[in-house]
């Protein structure tokens, strides 16, 4: 079995619409080996919509709001 035939593994990226988080999320999506859940405070932002177009699942979450993180994880 090759690596490409393995099922996608899911990874959550916090701050996915920021510079660092966005770069990480995009790089993981480009590999084709990861299902990316992108955490952001504003899922309607341009950066969030761009990640969704690349194939990420964009979810609303805030690191200062425990209940939002519980819903995601």
Automatic annotation (TrEMBL):
Keywords per UniProt: NADP
Residue span(s) of domain NmrA-like: 9-73
NADP recorded as keyword: yes
InterPro entries for the chain: NAD(P)-bd_dom_sf, NmrA-like, NmrA-like_oxidored
Entry keyword annotation includes Glycosyltransferase: no
A Pfam family matched in the record: NmrA
Family indicated by similarity: Belongs to the NmrA-type oxidoreductase family.
PANTHER family to which the protein is assigned, alphabetical: NITROGEN METABOLITE REPRESSION PROTEIN NMRA FAMILY MEMBER, NMRA-LIKE DOMAIN-CONTAINING PROTEIN
Protein name: NmrA family NAD(P)-binding protein
High-level lineage: Bacteria, Pseudomonadati, Bacteroidota, Sphingobacteriia, Sphingobacteriales
